[in-house]
Amino acid sequence: MHIWSLSQCLLRRGHRVVVITHGYDNRKGVRYMTNGLKVYYVPLVPVVDGDCMPTACAFFPIFRQILIRERITLVHGHQASSVMSHEAILFAKTMGYRVAYTDHSLFGFADAASIHLNKLMKFTMCSVDHAICVSNTCRENLVVRATLPPEKISTIPNAIDPSKFTPDPSARFPKGTINVVIMSRLVYRKGIDLVAPVVKASGLPLFTEGISRDFSLWCCGQCNPR
After folding, report:
1. Which one of 3.20.20.70, 3.40.50.300, 3.40.190.10, 3.40.50.2000 gives the CATH number of domain 2-155?
2. In this predicted model, what pLDDT tens digit does every residue of 111-141 receive, in sequence order?
3. What does the pLDDT look like over 144-155, one tens digit per residue?
4. CA separation (Å) from 193 to 102, 106, 201?
5. What is the DSSP string of 103-134?
6. What distance in Å separates the CA atoms of residue 142 and residue 105, rounded to the nearest whole number?
7. pLDDT tens track for 90-104
8. What is the pLDDT, as a whole number, of residue 225?
9. DSSP state, residue 27
10. Strand residue runs (E) in the chain
11. Is 19 exposed, middle or buried (0-12, 13-18, 19+ CB in 10 A)?
12. Which residue in 128, 73, 70, 69 sits closest to 103, CA to CA?
């Protein structure tokens, strides 16, 4: 959804956008989406958590054909855990294209998965021309993980389009009620583990006086079954 939304914004500004991703169920080949957005579903099979196995150079021939056929001038990779993103950045830079990267998540430094991923990030990110992070904290995290110069990273904050969320006035709480709404993916790398300490430090009645009628905390998002 993020890539689709970003593509629509770029299309409205007059740019031509092509999305390259792996196949999803019956989605294979080339599809056209809203406002003529062209999407290539390449024949790579996701293995775990919607990600593909590293292909070394197997992805390069079809990726190169797409770049040449579509007359691409800029390659934009998304997310540190995406195999296709890492390979696309390396291949594009090999061919002389300008490359940008967007990082959406916070990663640690102590667990085995983060250690290996951070090593890969240093290898890949040395090729990018510019990087984008969704928060200042994410920017600082990427500077340390990928050893990128801070001046090569910009912050474009995450945002919610309020026109997509219309409240129901009949369900409104009484006047004077404190309502805290948190919208996020409910996973560690999105910072959801910080919610309880922040609410506790704020002195809100959820932790100081038990659950109060004058206070409501809403967490909205997606997570794995627990």
Report:
1. 3.40.50.2000
2. 898 899 999 999 999 889 999 998 898 999 9
3. 999 999 999 999
4. 23, 12, 14
5. E-----SSSHHHHHHHHHHHHHHTT-SEEEES
6. 9
7. 999 999 999 999 998
8. 53
9. B
10. 18-22, 29-32, 38-42, 46-48, 51-52, 74-78, 98-103, 130-133, 153-155, 178-183, 215-220
11. middle
12. 128
Domain ranges in the chain?
Answer: 2-155, 162-220
Q: Which residues contact 88 (CB under 8 A, 6 or more apart)?
A: 20, 59, 63, 75, 77
**Residues 210, 213, 216, 222: is their CA dihedral positive or negative?**
positive
Q: Could you tell me the two tokens for 192?
A: 């959801």
- 49 φ, ψ to 5°? 55, 40
For residue 172 the two structure tokens come to 């409104």
Whether the model pTM is above 0.85: no
* Nearest one of 33, 122, 129 to 73, comparing CA atoms: 129
The pair of structure tokens assigned to 72 is 């691409």
H helix or E strand, kind and range, residue 4:
helix 2-12
Rg for the chain, CA atoms, rounded = 21
Residue 203 to residue 196: CA distance in whole angstroms: 11
